[in-house]
Amino acid sequence: MLGNQMIAAIQNLAKTLPLEQHFTWVMPENVPIDIPQEIVGAFYRNIYLKEHLAQALENDNDLELHYWIIREWGGIKTFQINGRNNHQIHEFRQQLNHNRLRRPTFNLISSLSKLAAFWHPGEYSIYDSRAIFSLNWLIFRHTNDRPLFPQPIGRSAAVSMYDTATLYRLSGFDFIERDWRTAYHEYCKLLRDIAREALNKDRPYYVEMLLFVAAPQFIVEDIRRNTTVNINLNAQQPAGLDR
User: Fold this and answer.
1) What is the rounded CA–CA span in Å between residue 96 and residue 171?
2) Taking the CB of the first residue and of the last residue of the chain, which one, N or C, has fewer CB atoms within 10 A?
3) What is the C-alpha end-to-end distance of the chain, expressed in Å?
4) 147, β-bridge pairs
5) Taking a C-beta distance cutoff of 8 angstroms, is the pair 161, 169 a contact?
6) What is the pLDDT of residues 183-211, one digit of tens each?
7) CB distance 166 to 183 below 8 Å
8) Coil vs helix vs strand at 214
């Protein structure tokens, strides 16, 4: 069960940042399925895509559509089309069923989790740097839980300005980072719980989208308002540092 403060924080986010207006992830022109013309707006078009692409992925033996999700829809052009990444995609799917990931897989979790979110949109979510940035801050600020999620390297300039692990350490509160082997599955379960308890939704992508949208402005501003750092330049230096 989620704490009342965490539920209220998520509900406040949803009210402040309605996804219909704020989720603006533009889809590529070469979408592999037909989206009805009456479905308009980035938010609704992306939801339709997530709900209707799974069958095509099951028949995607050459992985062309899988690469489209990562490279075109996801914008991660550095995920090259080659035999090594073919193997990583197959390995990832097998590891999902065992509830544990291996290090080479977790190193690519920002890319590979996009596939899982399309394979099973009711179970898995995208493990994105911006989403983790937001989630960790909300956990730290609104719960007594200290296990935080390992944050992948991201592309958001606003998010990359803040080394939140250092901020958490300077706060004086102890925290630990979750084991990368199980972090992805724990993240997906938590988002399912948040979706159900805070938003009354049966799909975790509502929470993932909300965390993604909130990171560069709302969460960054919340960190600014609630964080101060005092540096005492006149403090006595440790022994051995005097010149």
Assistant:
1) 35
2) C
3) 56
4) 176
5) no
6) 999 999 999 999 999 999 999 999 999 99
7) no
8) helix
